[in-house]
Specification:
The protein is of the alpha/beta class and 281 residues long. The protein has a domain of 187 residues: Rossmann fold (3-Layer(aba) Sandwich), CATH 3.40.50. 44% of the residues lie in helices and 11% in strands. Helix 4 packs across helix 5 and helix 4 packs across helix 9. The protein is globular, with a radius of gyration of 18 Å.
Length: 281
């Protein structure tokens, strides 16, 4: 059974507790394998205990309505047009959620990977109704940054959880080799942004460089780095939330309308070509 495993006097617990009190929209930003799903689970349980009703935003759930036979997963990779369409849906979905939220009790808790453009629309300023919701004091972005030791342990645990999943979602988690490849992609972004020197081979994971990149991506948002220096062991799968909270997800009609609009504006090839500039804010 899912339960809060964070020590009440720990930095992480105190951070989440303060956010539950001060914020209505909380987004954990970062690569797969940095602890976003665990933090989302723990905050959901804590929010429920505090009398708040959580709605969850998760990339792997939100993208599914957009993965039509035209744009299926290819070797586990999401098509760039699906990434753009999911992001385009998100800003409107935030406004709709806020309009239906109950006074003081509802929270939106999300995972926003950002890498590869996944939900990057939430980081880019835009002239729309969502911008005020993303800039005000009740919207917070948290960047979990594991230490080198914790990151290594996450990778080793990931291999075991994929081999023997406790929840169906765990079988689809990014395996350790993909986690390492995604870090290399982020390091190359750091080089492009002048935040790290170029290296002749693979760059070792660096919490400092990682935090610097995500701070840059979220420079228009109220964001804080949350160091993860302790390896946390959940009592159950991180995808277990007890009573399942509602999920923010597009309808099939919404997804098809957004895809049609994007297809009229660009070809799939143009979407692929633009995907390399995903980190531009």
């Amino acid at each position: 059974m899912s339960q809060v495993i964070l020590a009440p006097d720990s930095v992480i617990y105190l951070c989440l507790a303060q956010l539950i009190e001060d914020a209505d929209r909380v987004f954990f930003a970062g690569l797969p394998g940095v602890g976003k799903s665990l933090l989302l689970q723990q905050m959901t349980l804590m929010a429920r205990a505090a009398g708040r009703r959580a709605t969850l935003l998760q990339w792997d759930v939100a993208r599914q309505p957009f993965e039509t036979p035209r744009y299926p997963l290819a070797n586990g990779a999401t098509h760039p047009l699906v990434i753009r369409a999911t992001g385009a849906w998100l800003r409107g979905a935030l406004v709709e959620w806020d309009a239906q939220a109950r006074n003081g009790s509802d929270m939106l808790i999300g995972e926003v990977p950002l890498n590869g453009g996944r939900f990057m629309e939430i980081a880019r300023p835009a002239d729309d109704a969502a911008e005020a919701l993303l800039r005000d004091s009740r919207a917070r972005f948290v960047i979990p940054v594991p230490s080198e030791d914790v990151r290594a342990l996450i990778e080793s645990r990931r291999e075991r959880s994929i081999a023997a999943p406790r929840h169906a979602n765990e079988a689809h988690d990014a395996p350790p080799d993909l986690l390492r490849a995604l870090w290399q992609d982020v390091y190359q972004v750091a080089v492009a942004l002048g935040l790290a020197p170029a290296t002749p081979g693979d760059a070792p994971y660096s919490p400092q460089v990682y935090a610097a990149v995500y701070r840059q991506l979220l420079r228009h948002r109220q964001a804080r780095v949350l160091p993860i220096d302790e390896a946390l062991q959940p009592s159950s799968s991180v995808y277990e939330h007890g009573e399942q909270p509602p999920l923010l997800r597009a309808s099939a009609t919404q997804a098809e309308a957004i895809l049609a609009r994007l297809e009229a504006a660009m070809t799939p090839e143009q979407a692929i070509a633009a995907a390399g500039r995903w980190y531009e804010v």
